């Protein structure tokens, strides 16, 4: 399985709508976790990242180029939904600030570092329990 397929499997198992299982959404997850094709999910990170960085990461590591003016598409199709699902968080600055960033939540990071391991189901159930606390 490619990393894009693995990212899609993670999103599928997290029961996100089909629209948020698109390649674009998979690339967002991969970039935010800094997972290259040869990397294991256990090495995922949650460093702060801009949409520009996601676009650059996708082109450099997966050979898929998105135009800089597609940032709003990334926000609408992935970022907004991932934030609502508690997959990511922002740094709280004004959205028009050049220092505005996103990263994976600690809970999401903990979950995806266990993708493909024996305890994946246990971690996934824990993630769902934690997420329901915010409902």
Q: What would your notes on this structure say?
A:
The protein is mainly alpha-helical. The chain has a single domain (3-132), classed as Arc Repressor Mutant, subunit A (Orthogonal Bundle), CATH 1.10.10.1820. The chain has helices spanning 3-13, 23-33, 51-62, 71-84, 106-112, 120-132, and strands at 88-90, 102-104. A two-stranded antiparallel ribbon has the order 1-2. α1 (3-13) packs across α2 (23-33), α2 (23-33) crosses α3 (51-62) and α5 runs antiparallel to α6. The mean pLDDT is 92.
Task: Count the DSSP helices.
Answer: 6
CATH class bucket: Mainly Alpha
- The helix-strand sequence is HHHHEEHH
**What value does the average pLDDT take?**
92
CATH architectural type:
Orthogonal Bundle
Strand residue percentage: under 5%
Key phrases:
135 residues; mainly alpha; two-stranded antiparallel sheet; 6 helices
Summarize the topology.
Layout: H1 3-13, H2 23-33, H3 51-62, H4 71-84, E1 88-90, E2 102-104, H5 106-112, H6 120-132
Antiparallel strand pairs: 1-2
Could you give a short description of this structure?
This protein is mostly helical. It is 50% helix and 4% strand.
């Amino acid at each position: 399985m490619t990393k894009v397929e693995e990212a899609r499997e993670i999103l599928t198992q997290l029961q996100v709508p089909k629209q948020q299982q698109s390649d674009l959404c998979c690339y967002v997850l991969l970039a935010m976790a800094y997972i290259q094709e040869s990397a294991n999910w256990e090495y995922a990170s949650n460093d702060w990242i801009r949409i520009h960085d996601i676009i650059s990461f996708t082109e450099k590591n997966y050979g898929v180029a998105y135009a800089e003016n597609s940032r709003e598409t990334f926000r609408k199709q992935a970022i907004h939904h991932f934030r609502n699902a508690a997959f990511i968080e922002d740094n709280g600055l004004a959205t028009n600030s050049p220092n505005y960033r996103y990263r994976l939540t600690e809970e999401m990071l903990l979950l995806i570092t266990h993708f493909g391991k024996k305890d994946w189901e246990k971690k996934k159930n824990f993630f769902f329990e934690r997420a329901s606390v915010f409902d």
